[in-house]
Amino acid sequence: MALDRQSIEKKDFPVGRRGYDPEAVDSHLAALADEIEELKSTARRRAETLASSASEQVRAIVEAAETSAAEIQRQAEEEAREIRAEAKSEADSTREQASAQARDYVGKVSESTSVMLQRLDAMESELGALIESLRTGGNRLTADLQLLEGNLSDVRDAASPRPRFEPDDGFGMGPGPEPAPTLADRYGVGADEPMAYGEPLSETDEPFPEDREPDAEVTAAIRPPEAEPTGISSLAAEGSDDTEGARLIALNMALNGTPRDETDRYLAENFRLADRDGLLDEVYASVEG
Questions:
Q1: Is residue 6 part of a domain?
Q2: What is the CA angle 276-281-286, rounded to 5?
Q3: From CA 103, how far away is CA 95, in angstroms rounded?
Q4: What is the count of structural domains for the chain?
Q5: What's the pLDDT band for 53 if we cut at 50, 70, 90?
Q6: Tens of pLDDT, residues 13-45
Q7: pLDDT digit string (tens) for 189-247?
Q8: According to DSSP H, which parts of the chain are helical?
Q9: Residue 271: strand pairing partners
Q10: b/e map of 60-89 (b: 16 or more CB within 10 Å)?
Q11: Does the residue 233 lie in any domain?
Q12: What string of DSSP letters covers 128-186?
């Protein structure tokens, strides 16, 4: 049954005797129609209000969700930018440190290589100078030995006995050759009264026994000089401060097997060195190595 205003007001009832007053019935039906209309209107308004409220709530929820999503996205993007910037900064710092370390290492290697090459050149120069000095010392020593051999030959010839010659024996041989000059003639002994071999001594002449020591000049000429290390006579000088010359002499003495204390004593007597022990340590270490 419809409960709208038109259905209620247009409802027809059959007419009977002793029934209700038609006007009163119509008035009551009109009031009912108004009440029902009011109820329907109120229900519609309430439904609209609920729908509007629900719509507002849904809209608020959607807006809040959108706002939250935007904030979350913004924070995520900001954090991502910070992470990328930090990673880039760390990568740049690491790359710069690696480059600096590589440059430092290359510089140290280059410097060490240059120092080693300089030391090698210095060692080559020193070795060349040492070889040249040894060659010069050897040549000088050879010349000294040749001169000494010549002096020894002269002394040997002077000290050797001369043959005696007899005067003419009457067989027509004629006078013999002149006697060779004696040691007295050669060295000026008894120059005022020269005498030859075989001539008798006078009472004032002093005998010359075999065990008498020879003249000092003759002895010095006959006796060979004391042996020195190779090249020392040509390199060492009294009071010299030539460190390289002292090094060459010490090296030569060490190569000849001379004890260190003897080499030290010789250097102390002939050179003025600031660090003689260090020089000997270096020389003998190189020879023993």
A1: no
A2: 130
A3: 12
A4: 1
A5: confident
A6: 666 656 667 777 778 778 888 888 888 888 888
A7: 444 444 443 444 444 444 444 444 444 443 444 444 444 444 444 444 444 447 888 88
A8: 5-9, 22-159, 183-187, 216-222, 232-235, 243-255, 260-270, 276-288
A9: 240
A10: eeeeeeeeeeeeeeeeeeeeeeeeeeeeee
A11: no
A12: HHHHHHHHHHHHHHHHHHHHHHHHHHHHHHHHSPPPP-----SSS--PPPPPPP-HHHH
Alpha carbons 8 and 17: distance in angstroms, whole number: 23
129: CB partners within 8 A, 6+ apart: 244
For residues 243 and 273, the answer to whether their CB atoms sit within 8 Å is yes
Compute CA distances 279 → 89, 232, 249, 267, whole Å. Answer: 57, 17, 11, 10
What are the tokens at 218?
A: 């003759």
Determine, yes or no, domain membership for 164: no
Identity (one letter) of the amino acid at 176? G
CA dist 197 and 217 (Å) reads 21
Range of the domain at 45: 25-112
**Does 101 fall in a domain?**
yes
CA dist list (Å): 72 to 33, 53, 69, 79, 131: 57, 28, 5, 10, 87
Neighbours of 231 (CB within 10 A): 24
Helix, strand or coil, per DSSP, at residue 38: helix
The percentage of the chain sitting over the pLDDT mark of 70, rounded to a whole number, equals: 63
This prediction has a pTM of: 0.27
**Angle CA(173)–CA(175)–CA(180) in degrees, nearest 5?**
125
Give the pair of three-digit tokens for residue 46: 């309430």
Phi, psi of 271 (to 5 degrees): -135, 150
- Token pair, residue 161, equals 């006995």
Residue 288 vs residues 79, 146, 222, 230, 268: alpha-carbon distances, Å? 72, 33, 38, 19, 22
Q: How far apart are CA 287 and CA 278, in angstroms?
A: 14
